[in-house]
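How a chain folds remains the central question behind the approach discussed here. The record that follows shows the chain in one-letter code together with its fold in token form:
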Amino acid sequence: MVVLAASIVSKSGKVLVSRQFMDMSRMRIESLLAAFPKLVGTGKQHTFVENENVRYVYQPIEALYLVLVTNKQSNILEDLDTLRMLSKLVPEYSLSLDEEGICKTGFELIFAIDEVISLGHKENVTVAQVKQNCEMESHEEKLHKLVLQSKINETKDVMKRKASEIDKSKIEKNRGDKGGFMSLQSMGSGRIESSFSDLSISSGGGGFGSGSGFGLSTDVESYSAKSKGRQPLAATAPPKGLGMQLGKSKKTNQFLESLKAEGELIVEDVQPKAGQSRAAAPPPTDPITLTVEEKLNVTLKRDGGISNFDVQGTLSLQILNQDDGLIQVQIETGGNPGILFKAHPNMNKELFSSENILGLKDPNRPFPTGSAGDAAGVGLLRWRMQSADESMVPLTINCWPSVSGNETYVSIEYEASSMFDLCNVVISVPLPALREAPNIRQIDGEWRYDSRNSVLEWSILLIDNSNRSGSMEFVVPPADSSAFFPISACFSATNTYSDLKVAKIIPLRDGAPPKFSQRTTLITENYQVV
């Protein structure tokens, strides 16, 4: 069997996509395909026609033809098998089977055809294998990009620290040259003008923004501490309030009020008190804290089905006291066969595989301890789960836009699985550029319109057995259906896919086992409907 070319043509003979597997000129292939519609008769049940030189094996696809041009000595049964494979691939890559849809996805179709036919002969592949080969996803490439991004972020942090050190050294130099508090005020006034455009002035007057690292109260204290050992300078005290009223500037307030009048949501940058910050995020009080965290990466198709479903989990350990470091951790897993567990290289792998006990290879070596503010802890165990089963998805979202006259009616509904109770659910729907907020006709929950990014946010505080499904309807000016995608969602849950639990803590020294607590959370890292 030798396939000379695989093509998609219109019924009038216009060539939309063609891939040649033998040396032939463009004029030659165009003449062959232009003669094809004249050979196809009406009302016939044949799937091939011939002329004196070649054979056309074809299949109608709505208003188009999928054509294989072969030599007359080719095995027609194998040609029909190749044709059937290509007819399955075309709808996978082209959403609309018309001239516009085929032309938009021309390169993707050519790549798919190359996976099926090589040098004129059919390859033994399936539709799933062709799609996997064309996607060319590489775990090593993703890992490399993550490492590269972490290095970039680390370099930015170093740059900010160096800039802060340079600024402080300049301030110290100006103090030594001019003396007094006025040089500090002049530096502050220059910083106000440069950072006002970034709106990084806090209302408490504590600093000029996190990027500069320049804090007024801190520098005043260091200045007063340094001036104790020297002769007092000029006795003229600065007027009160010159450098401390930054957050209460009339110009700033007028600018914020004008933004509020235009409909922007302004969040006041109020410096929290120490007591408030501790109450909002209490540090662990138990001697040992174990954290089970799973991150969810899901990509759903707008017409149904899953493009990607990936769960990555970690078990981390945090010990406050060094005396509690000589321990082992007994865990229980939910028995999910799709989850692959990997222990830390320093763990005793045989002990974990036989008894589900996490302990160091050297039993005389304690686990490292961390401060109360270190929430990361020490990683003990990692796991991963991938699936193509749609029933594993915790939240499905369907969007139905329809144009009627001069308006587009959009209906969005969600359905949540009974596996999880979802907290703080936010579904973000991109919208076309609008002059005003969309007209919300009906909603289960609350909504917010971000006019700057043109995004409608649908918020549900808790999804449990009382509201496993919900819907929202809104109206916008006429727009294409693709303008409302991709839809993204974020949420959290207090149980996980692995259902991993800490059964007990086993002390390696004599004495009662130390008290411990377990924190379990499931969060979304990337959850989209495309």
